[in-house]
Amino acid sequence: MPATIDDLLADYGFLDADDRYRLLIDLGRELEPMPDALKTDATLVRGCSASVWVYPTRAADGRLHFLADSNAAITKGIIALVLLTVQDRAPADIAATDIEAALAPFELTRQLSSNRTQGIPNMIALIRATAARYA
Protein backbone atom coordinates (compact mmCIF):
# COMPACT_ATOMS: atom_id res chain seq x y z
CA MET A 1 0.00 0.00 0.00
CA PRO A 2 1.14 3.57 -0.52
CA ALA A 3 2.97 5.10 2.42
CA THR A 4 0.36 7.82 2.94
CA ILE A 5 -3.02 8.89 1.69
CA ASP A 6 -1.32 11.87 0.03
CA ASP A 7 0.90 9.50 -1.97
CA LEU A 8 -2.18 7.67 -3.16
CA LEU A 9 -4.02 10.89 -4.03
CA ALA A 10 -1.13 12.02 -6.22
CA ASP A 11 -1.68 8.95 -8.43
CA TYR A 12 -5.47 8.85 -8.13
CA GLY A 13 -5.93 12.28 -9.69
CA PHE A 14 -4.40 11.12 -12.98
CA LEU A 15 -6.59 8.03 -13.37
CA ASP A 16 -9.81 7.61 -15.31
CA ALA A 17 -12.86 6.05 -13.65
CA ASP A 18 -12.00 2.44 -14.60
CA ASP A 19 -8.44 2.79 -13.35
CA ARG A 20 -9.74 4.29 -10.09
CA TYR A 21 -11.87 1.19 -9.57
CA ARG A 22 -8.83 -0.99 -10.23
CA LEU A 23 -6.76 1.06 -7.81
CA LEU A 24 -9.36 0.59 -5.05
CA ILE A 25 -9.50 -3.14 -5.76
CA ASP A 26 -5.70 -3.33 -5.61
CA LEU A 27 -5.71 -1.44 -2.29
CA GLY A 28 -8.13 -3.98 -0.90
CA ARG A 29 -5.98 -6.86 -2.08
CA GLU A 30 -3.01 -5.39 -0.23
CA LEU A 31 -4.78 -5.33 3.13
CA GLU A 32 -3.23 -7.52 5.77
CA PRO A 33 -5.21 -10.77 5.88
CA MET A 34 -7.87 -10.90 8.57
CA PRO A 35 -8.31 -14.34 10.13
CA ASP A 36 -11.79 -15.77 9.62
CA ALA A 37 -12.12 -16.27 13.38
CA LEU A 38 -12.20 -12.47 13.77
CA LYS A 39 -15.05 -12.05 11.30
CA THR A 40 -17.83 -12.14 13.83
CA ASP A 41 -21.00 -10.24 14.54
CA ALA A 42 -19.03 -8.14 17.05
CA THR A 43 -16.57 -6.95 14.36
CA LEU A 44 -19.16 -6.47 11.62
CA VAL A 45 -19.71 -2.85 10.56
CA ARG A 46 -23.43 -2.12 10.49
CA GLY A 47 -25.06 -0.25 7.61
CA CYS A 48 -22.79 -1.44 4.80
CA SER A 49 -24.34 -3.03 1.73
CA ALA A 50 -21.46 -5.53 1.71
CA SER A 51 -20.13 -7.30 4.77
CA VAL A 52 -17.28 -5.35 6.37
CA TRP A 53 -15.36 -6.43 9.44
CA VAL A 54 -12.95 -4.25 11.41
CA TYR A 55 -10.88 -5.54 14.32
CA PRO A 56 -8.56 -3.28 16.33
CA THR A 57 -5.31 -4.41 17.89
CA ARG A 58 -3.11 -2.35 20.15
CA ALA A 59 0.68 -2.27 19.95
CA ALA A 60 2.87 -2.18 23.05
CA ASP A 61 3.39 1.56 22.53
CA GLY A 62 -0.39 2.15 22.46
CA ARG A 63 -0.79 2.69 18.73
CA LEU A 64 -3.83 1.10 17.11
CA HIS A 65 -3.58 -1.28 14.20
CA PHE A 66 -6.74 -2.36 12.42
CA LEU A 67 -7.39 -5.61 10.62
CA ALA A 68 -10.22 -5.32 8.12
CA ASP A 69 -11.92 -7.29 5.38
CA SER A 70 -14.98 -7.26 3.17
CA ASN A 71 -16.73 -9.74 0.93
CA ALA A 72 -16.80 -7.13 -1.88
CA ALA A 73 -13.63 -6.04 -3.69
CA ILE A 74 -14.47 -2.33 -4.07
CA THR A 75 -15.69 -2.10 -0.47
CA LYS A 76 -12.49 -3.76 0.70
CA GLY A 77 -10.59 -1.07 -1.20
CA ILE A 78 -12.65 1.65 0.45
CA ILE A 79 -11.87 0.35 3.94
CA ALA A 80 -8.19 0.15 2.93
CA LEU A 81 -8.41 3.81 1.92
CA VAL A 82 -10.03 4.73 5.24
CA LEU A 83 -7.33 2.82 7.12
CA LEU A 84 -4.59 4.77 5.32
CA THR A 85 -5.74 7.81 7.33
CA VAL A 86 -5.47 6.14 10.76
CA GLN A 87 -3.41 2.95 10.66
CA ASP A 88 -0.74 2.52 13.33
CA ARG A 89 -1.40 5.83 15.03
CA ALA A 90 -2.03 6.75 18.65
CA PRO A 91 -5.69 6.76 19.70
CA ALA A 92 -5.61 10.51 20.42
CA ASP A 93 -4.19 11.16 16.94
CA ILE A 94 -6.92 9.03 15.36
CA ALA A 95 -9.61 10.84 17.34
CA ALA A 96 -8.22 14.19 16.13
CA THR A 97 -8.01 13.10 12.46
CA ASP A 98 -10.63 14.50 10.11
CA ILE A 99 -11.05 11.28 8.17
CA GLU A 100 -13.85 12.69 6.02
CA ALA A 101 -11.65 15.61 4.94
CA ALA A 102 -8.82 13.22 4.10
CA LEU A 103 -11.17 11.18 1.91
CA ALA A 104 -12.93 14.18 0.29
CA PRO A 105 -10.41 14.67 -2.55
CA PHE A 106 -11.13 11.12 -3.73
CA GLU A 107 -14.77 12.11 -4.41
CA LEU A 108 -15.95 8.60 -3.62
CA THR A 109 -19.62 9.63 -3.63
CA ARG A 110 -19.18 10.88 -7.20
CA GLN A 111 -17.07 7.93 -8.35
CA LEU A 112 -19.07 5.09 -6.80
CA SER A 113 -22.72 4.17 -6.35
CA SER A 114 -24.46 5.11 -3.13
CA ASN A 115 -24.66 1.39 -2.25
CA ARG A 116 -20.87 1.22 -2.19
CA THR A 117 -20.37 4.39 -0.14
CA GLN A 118 -23.28 4.24 2.32
CA GLY A 119 -21.26 2.36 4.92
CA ILE A 120 -18.27 4.72 4.98
CA PRO A 121 -19.69 6.89 7.82
CA ASN A 122 -20.26 3.72 9.87
CA MET A 123 -16.69 2.52 9.23
CA ILE A 124 -15.39 5.91 10.35
CA ALA A 125 -17.67 5.96 13.40
CA LEU A 126 -16.43 2.52 14.47
CA ILE A 127 -12.79 3.60 14.13
CA ARG A 128 -13.45 6.79 16.10
CA ALA A 129 -15.30 4.91 18.84
CA THR A 130 -12.40 2.46 19.09
CA ALA A 131 -9.88 5.30 19.35
CA ALA A 132 -12.01 7.00 22.02
CA ARG A 133 -12.11 3.77 24.05
CA TYR A 134 -8.33 3.52 24.03
CA ALA A 135 -7.54 7.25 24.38
In short:
The protein is built from eight helices and two strands; from the N terminus they run ααββαααααα. The chain is mainly α. It has a two-stranded antiparallel ribbon.
Describe the structure.
The structure is a single chain. With 135 residues, this protein is mainly alpha-helical. 50% of the residues lie in helices and 10% in strands. The protein contains 8 helices and 2 strands. The protein has a two-stranded antiparallel sheet with strand order 1-2. Helix 2 crosses helix 3. The longest helix is centred in the last third of the chain and has 15 residues. The two termini are 27 Å apart. The mean pLDDT is 91.
- SSE pattern, N- to C-terminal: HHEEHHHHHH
Averaged pLDDT: 91
Strand content: 5-15%
**C-alpha Rg (nearest Å):** 14 Å
Count of DSSP-assigned helices: 8
Major β-sheet strand ordering:
1-2
- What structural class do helix, strand and pairing data support? mainly alpha
As residue ranges, the low-confidence spans are: none
Q: Which range best describes the helical content: under 10%, 10-25%, 25-40%, 40-55%, 55-70% or over 70%? A: 40-55%
Shape label: globular
Q: Whole-Å distance between the termini? A: 27 Å
The biggest sheet amounts to: 2 strands, antiparallel
The total of beta strands comes to 2
